[in-house]
Design goal:
With 483 residues, the protein is an alpha/beta fold. It contains 16 helices and 20 strands. The chain binds flavin-adenine dinucleotide.
Length: 483
Amino acid sequence: MSDDNWDVIVVGGGGAGLAAAVTAAEHGASVLLFESEGELGGSTQLSAGLFTAAGTSVQRGLGIEDTAEKFFQHYMDLNHWMLKPGLIRAFCEHAGPTLEWLIDLGVEIPARESANAHMPGLCQAGVEDVWRGHVPKDQGYGLVQVLDKARRGHGIEAILNTRVQSLVVEDGRVVGVVADDIEVRAAAVVVASGGFAQNPELVDRYYPVANEAGDAMFVVAAPGSRGDHMAFGAQVGSAIAGDGWGLILPTAYFQRFHHWQSGFPPKSRIYVNGHGRRFMDEDASYAVSTGIIDAQVGGSWAVFDETARMNLPAGYADWDAERVAEEAEAGRTLRADSLSGLAEVMGVPVDALDATVTRWNAQLPNGFDDDFLRHRTLANKGSAANPDPIGRGPFYAVRLLSAELVCTHAGLEIDSDAAVLGRTGSPVEGLYAAGEAGAGILGLRYVGGGNAVANALTMGRIAGGNAARFARSGSADLATAGI
Ligand SMILES: Cc1cc2nc3c(=O)[nH]c(=O)nc-3n(C[C@H](O)[C@H](O)[C@H](O)COP(=O)(O)OP(=O)(O)OC[C@H]3O[C@@H](n4cnc5c(N)ncnc54)[C@H](O)[C@@H]3O)c2cc1C
């Protein structure tokens, strides 16, 4: 390892770090990247790679008219306008061009409708009226492969198995990092070290709501998500944004893996609350589903019948017919021969559960859900066949809870240049951040599949470009918004 001066040092080789490194090199900067793990990719590599963006060639190929302005309005509305409009505006404007940049680098996203996050094309990412979920071929792994090829093409050295310990700060300006106890100097540093989902102390401090699932909580984020950005931020007195926010997905109490491994609950199911009433579109996007489930009084359950259990496809770790039977045998999944018996063990009004099931049987199994419009969601997912009615005992109730911790939103507050802001709101000279480490874009509500990857790559690209400009000019004033 050299301890020479570099233009730009990038901390972390996931989506944000790779985008930053490649972009900085495109601007002529000399770049060095540190990655704490044995391989590049981080959570980005584990993701479906779903990327939310507006006004793209993929949308146009499908005849869809969309703009950054519409994306911005939707993003701000869903987040109750609790985010900084200028920053969100910059993100929404640059997400589309970043997607085109990825396509130019070799990412494949066909202009065809996609039914889910594993089918390349364009899908409904969340609750937007215009589809914005871009699903790349080979998912997050494919994104990382393309970015890594570009990294190698630029001759950017990536030092693996090397966890950056701290920043080097002189007179309030960041001038390098310490790794393996060696000081390595650079004109600018980009912190792209991901989130803190794997750090229980930081989860307690910055996303305590995740602990409400108790022992059922499980983390799917990459092992490097230890929250080192928080310590870097403390060194320079950075402001923290996104406190209290993250993405925790609703699951059944017995799930332990991300849904593509855990499996999916039966299509013929209803979600029932403590009043014995159905309360939501069971297939609603997690842009809204976590909030709806968490708002129920007296708990919430997935209710289904024996036919639904028997029809579960084999090969998944959790949602499997045998596994559900074992859980019922152990008394953890509630089971009864009749609906009234099920209502009793659930502790919900018998007449209400009976009326709920009768109503649903008259609705969606006949193709229409007047109450929650689930037929629309199913159609968008390409799931055309009507579900079976709920009618054949025994009947099951599986407790729902928000327990799958995917990503965290609290980090170093950035502006629209991806410059890290100090407590006074002024940029810390020489310091940029992006992805989960750079905060202010991932908000109260996850805007839908693709929110976090788009944030990582778009803001990574902005951070890399501005870090390179700053290195060349030596002045924060000359680092302007843009890429
Ligand atoms: C299973 C799963 C599926 C997901 N699916 C989607 C999806 O389809 N679409 C979407 O938008 N979002 C998705 N997300 C969320 C999204 O993937 C992440 O929020 C995003 O990729 C984070 O990018 P990042 O660059 O900030 O962090 P990462 O990709 O995690 O990269 C950070 C890197 O920094 C390294 N690092 C950490 N500390 C140090 C240090 N001190 N020194 C050096 N290196 C360090 C880490 O090892 C890691 O490689 C998913 C997440 C998971 C876990």
